[in-house]
Amino acid sequence: MARRTSLDQLLNDLAAVRKQPAAPASLEALVKGLASPSGVLVEKAATLIGELKLSGLAPDLAAAFERMMAGQDPGCAAKIAIAKALLDTDAGDVAEPVYRRGLRHRQREGPTDVAGALRGYCALGLLNLRHRDALVELADLLADPEPAARTAAVRGLASTGREEAALLVRLRLLVGEPSADVLTEALVVLLRLDSDRSLPLASRFLDDESPDVRDAAALALGESRHPGALALLRLAYQRERDDQTRKTILVAAGLLRGQDAGDWLTAVVENGPPAEALAALQSLRVRRRESGLAGRIRAIVSARAIATLQRELDQHWGE
Q1: Tens digit of pLDDT for each residue in 89-121?
Q2: Is the pTM of this model over 0.85?
Q3: Which H/E stretch holds residue 109?
Q4: Residue 181 placed within a domain
Q5: Of 143, 160, 177, which closes a domain?
Q6: What are the pLDDT digits (tens) for 275-291?
Q7: Across the strands, what pairs with 113?
Q8: Nearest alpha carbon to residue 145 among 92, 107, 192, 94
Q9: At what angle do helices 96-103 and 116-128 cross, to 10 degrees?
Q10: d(CA 315, CA 27)
């Protein structure tokens, strides 16, 4: 019972840190949290340090990492929080051994390796330190079995802005990327780093046999806001037969925010099947304050007299 009281007290002390992060009592609570054998407390303390960007605690974070490597840390949660905190607080050379060890860590829980995100943050940490091996580690992570690690690799490579980084990401896509989330991230990166040469590649994925891949490609084109994206999305919409992917294409068009995209979505609201008209209307929601749009949409919805469209208008298009 005493142990439970102590744990509860430490949690309460950590909860108070946000109110006065610089207070001596807050520092004491964070140090005690990191020194605890409880992964929950270590995760909480490390998360606070990272979010509040508190300096001077890198040695305590590194020591806690070593203990968590040897102790119980379900989901790798505490170790991930420590790696993020070291990254967010620019911990310097103290962090390098943590990143190197974290990059090699595997932690299987059932069929899943839960350390994928840890490897990703550690690779980003080496990049933040400008370590000479950082690009090598990021390139290796592109072949990691876990999507979280591959996503971090894509983001890390993108942050370099280098042409060879874009080529590595392109290769990851061409050899086959099974995760729709990673595929979206990679296409967004390519369309930003090397837009003209990457647009045909993104278009190729719009014809993939997998609806998930087509959805990912559409969303990536929308997020890219590339001037040529709308034409590709409209062509894909015309030939697409999957109802959900057609809706996703409309969502992607809403991300483009240009006048042509707005006009096309408005036309779908006016003439499209009810489910797709609703998707287009929802995509236009963020633009509802644009001059003249709300009035035009209200007239269209009134004329169509479709309950789902009217409900969307009443709930989300108010003044």
Answers
A1: 877 889 999 999 999 999 999 998 999 999 999
A2: no
A3: strand 108-109
A4: yes
A5: 160
A6: 999 999 999 998 888 88
A7: 108
A8: 107
A9: 140
A10: 47
